Amino acid sequence: MCFVCGLKNGFGLKAHFYETEDNRNVAIFKPCDKHQGYPGRLHGGIAAAILDETIGRAITIGKEEDVWGVTLEINVKYKKPVPLNQEIKVIGRITSIKNRVFEGCGEILLPGGETAVTAEGRYLLLPIEKIADFDLHQNEWQRVFLPSDPEAIDF
What we know:
Elements: E1 16-19, E2 24-29, H1 44-57, E3 68-78, E4 88-98, E5 101-109, E6 115-126, H2 128-131
Antiparallel strand pairs: 1-2, 2-4, 3-6, 4-5, 5-6
């Protein structure tokens, strides 16, 4: 039921995430009218949410064990409006890791490749049992690796 990645959340973004060989986390989603702020535009808070999730999930790249990040702070800059009803690409990467805190950055790219929104965030690494009463199997939380390459999506 996660708003960003939950496939059963009727109001959610249903984002799909991919790991790239250069350690970037890529999310692909298609915002709809339920996600608008101003008519025809993605709500700024939802833009922040997808960036937060994409950056925070980048910590899992290349890790065998379950690693989780909890947002400590996020700074978002809005440069261009994000349209609805089009596939949107989000990129997140880790910029530093120090003990239990990591930092990352990301951007939302428009279909033409222009940067619409950027973000920088700081996250705390915690085991899931310290975050929530959460059963990975019951909540269908899993990483699914698809053969399609997100870099091949022409933006």
